[in-house]
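Help! Submission page says 'invalid entity' but I think these are all valid:
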Amino acid sequence: MSKSNTILYLDGVSVSFDGFRAINNLSLVLDKGEMRAIIGPNGAGKTTMMDIVTGKTRPDQGEVFFDGQVDLTKHDEAEIAMMGVGRKFQKPTVFESHTIEENLMLALKGPRSIFPALFHRRSVAEARQIDDILGIIRLGDKRDELAANLSHGQKQWLEIGMLLAQDPKLLLVDEPVAGMTDAETEETARLLRDIARDHSVIVVEHDMHFVRELGVKVTCLHEGSVLSEGSLDFVSADERVVEVYLGR
Amino acid sequence: MITGRFFAAGADRRIAITIFILLAAAIIVPLLNLAVSPASAFYVPSYIVALTGKYLCYALLALALDLVWGYCGILSLGHGAFFALGGYAMGMYLMRQIGSRGVYGNPLLPDFMVFLNYKELPWFWYGFDHFWFAAIMVLAVPGLLAFVFGWFAFRSRVTGVYLSIITQAMTYALLLAFFRNDMGFGGNNGLTDFKDILGFNVQADATRSALFAASAVTLALAVFVTWAIVGSKYGKLLMAVRDAESRTRFLGWRAENVKLFAFTVSAVMAGIAGALYVPQVGIINPGEFEPSNSIEVVVWAAVGGRGTIVGPIIGALLVNAGKSWFTGVLPEFWLFALGGLFVAVTLFLPKGIVGMWDAWRGNARALRAASIAEEAGTDPDVPAPPKIVRSAARTPGEWSTSGPEPQPAE
């Protein structure tokens, strides 16, 4: 497999915690501009895979390359984030004691050192970017409200908005519709499809309706490696997939 | 730029009032002590000047702790160490000012060194005969210790209780070190018998008043600096690290550097507090490193309200005034009262006095709005305004001045 023209390239990645193999010889390739849905039962290694890509966990073996040439195993979270990998957590994680606008401001692409932040003044360009993102995530009327006052679904959107503010090349989105109503779920699928137009995206999700809405290639993980890959119909027709989901 | 924000209409009134009161006290209290006849009702006795001057130093220490605890969630149980180090730097200067007026009359060596048979001045005492050198050391020594300590602690991602324990261990280690006679800092007895500061007699009323004024002005300045830091984008980041550290990392911020900066600034502030404290109490000894002192600082900040700028100051002043009164009336029970106070505050006033005041004001305003609506003959079922916390008026280029919400300590 050639690494060029890939945004993410995992080959033979393994990691174990206290003897438990969370990821077992996992290989996964994401092309530039592609959106991919990852499904799999609990404990299949979906979140661990994201931890590896974002630098939170170091793999025991295997290659992880970003953008064709950057070896992600040699960098930490902050460096990887600055290179252009954004991550949304499974549990929505926003800065609850700040307003929506301040949340986005802190996420906005720009210098990440202390002294510029001490003397920072918001520029017109930044204000416009924030307005744009607020429009996309539909929280424009709540900009001055504290993030703590948002509903669960709105927090999910705010977190996606923070990813957008970061302007990453690759977005890792962990269970974006957990705890959302059907209408919100549909709305989120639309939002992610929009985002996927100019970003590469990996979405981890349990909700099959949502995955169908996305209409993208699906990878099913099981026990830390790829079980099946293809269109949703292909994957859900795969006997092994049915087996791991329903049990034997 | 920052001052522009300060004088802007939306500036936090409470901060402005606090700074005004402190600056006014810096002028009025010395005047009432020096220029008013002791027979007058307005006369402020010298011992009150010295006592309140000491409280102001404690308030500065509490404010320093609040910057890291209230705004960044770092519960330091060793802030007394930075305070004591600043105090020792000032004490070394005051020692060298004694010159040949000591009991042994040695022009170079302080009394304790003569007593302990030192033949020459240890190298680390050089330079302390100059005030400017001592002043730099007051800032540099606590700052450097905090920087090195924080560098290792935050880089290895020590957080929560574990961090609190190692800060406590740090101050305890320093306590033991400074107790040793061969450390060269006067051992058990510490540094005392000061004669003058910058050529003025430390015992004189005028000097005491000047030290009081210096403490009040420094505290006012520290309030302003803390307010500016907390209101900046960095300040928002500081609170973001407190509330969701991993989120800041995945946004590309280096949480360890964010903490390190606040910790170092806080230690420098604590060092300044110690340096102002020593000439006013006339002694610095290893007892200042006692872990219990650092814990007391935490109680002051908690009582006043952490995560607010004014709270720790009010807490420090109230608890210490209470301590002065209590130790006069029922000295054996003071520690029980202090412990009880901490338990009571944690249970009943989790946001401290200032937090309770804000909540009470917020409720009162909601009730008033509801009653006005009722009087106006509108629908009596009008619900009280929803309890949605909104930030202050937003002008482009401004950070809102919304009150931060301290999270429970980890």
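Support: the input was valid. A stray whitespace character was the problem, and the output above is from the cleaned input. The beta strands of chain B are 191-192, 196-197, 200-201, 283-284.
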